[in-house]
Prior knowledge:
Elements: E1 5-9, H1 11-16, E2 28-32, H2 33-41, H3 48-63, E3 73-74, E4 81-85, H4 92-97, H5 103-117, E5 121-125, H6 129-137, E6 141-143, E7 161-164, H7 168-176, H8 183-186, E8 196-200, E9 205-211, E10 216-219, H9 233-242, E11 249-254, H10 260-270, E12 277-282, H11 299-320, H12 326-336, E13 340-344, E14 356-360, H13 368-375, E15 383-388, H14 404-412, E16 418-423, H15 430-438
Parallel strand pairs: 1-2, 1-5, 2-4, 5-6, 7-8, 11-15, 11-16, 12-13, 12-14, 14-15
Antiparallel strand pairs: 3-4, 8-9, 9-10
Amino acid sequence: MGIKKNFVLDTNVILHDSKCIHNFQEHDIYIPIVVLEELDRFKKGNEEINFNAREFAREIDNIADSHLFKDGASLGKGRGRLFIVTEENYPEELAKAFSERIPDHRILAVALNLSKKSKNKTILVTKDINLRMKAKSLGIETEDYTTDKVQNMDAFDNGFRTIEASSPEQIDQLYSEKEGLSLEELKIDSIDKNECFILKSSRASVMCRYNPISDKVQRVEKMRAFGIEPRNAEQAFAMDVLLDDNVKLVALTGKSGTGKTLLALAAALCKNEEYKQVFLSRPIVALAGKDLGYLPGDANDKVSPYMQPLFDNLGVIKSALNYQGKEIRILDEMQREKRLVIEALAFIRGRSLSETFFIVDEAQNLTPHEIKTIITRAGEGTKIVFTGDIQQIDSPYLDMQSNGLVYMIDRMKGQDIFAHVNLVKGERSYLSELAANLL
């Protein structure tokens, strides 16, 4: 057990994780009364932050006792105590620097007062970078909430590994034998389940994936799906895991223009006979801080602009098929019978999705808890694909290491039914690739 500390929590930490008070081991937690006031404003609504605000209120109610506001309430054996701070003494040095008594400054006041009177180190925990800067200017120690933050980001730096073959004949065997070769035969020591890589010799190379079901390294072919054909090795790897029925959870990451959503949609349509429904969705990140309620029209009118990128990918597939043929008829029939559904992610809460090919676009804007909520909706026969660019995060309290997509990839790595492919090369256009790299 280390030296006991005091942690003062900001509102955004609780809105990010309603169970956060149980993640500070033996240390004491202080929640300024202004945080409860702010949480009260978030209780109404159907977004994840609204559910977290309500859940935290229930959590507090379960552990609250008469000592909560004075001596603190115990959080359990081996844990610290929880305090609600109602005293609002505004220190002189704080008033000089930040005279306006907005909620952030009231939280700073609690942290500053506690650091002066307590013998234990006091740390302000917030996901707000600006508030952390203000705290540091006053000499207050501060931290980000890192419980669900991923430390190792190597999986997002490159597309795939290149492994040297022990002999050129092994590559010939992989081309000729459909069953593949074992890791022992290839003399490969360390590899992840469903990892895609290039096996290279002095005279040839082959695209491969280690299949944990067969326990073999198998050749990956460029497979065409609903008019869409992979343009590079990364896209071929992505299509391979998307079309593999044994891989129930897929994560596709990469910058804009790498084909993540298009490949996922094409694979889903290709599998139309094996799934009752293809479901495309994405989280809604409100523009200019405005809620959907401010927009005109009914629910479909409000959501439609946010779903347009998904419709755009559908248009690309129709164009690739020249708007005619059997596959176009299948696509039109699926839309007519509502077997191909495009709608906002908020609408899936509480639903059970069975025999569904479920694609979640822009998953980097989801929290770890939201990702968990989505995956736990999966019924029998369902495949879920998450796509996202971790460098384009629109949520103010998520970053490259704390968003739900990265968290899920980190936790699911090594599972038989999971595969992650990181796409690096942009294929939308030369202009798009240039902008993604330089701007």
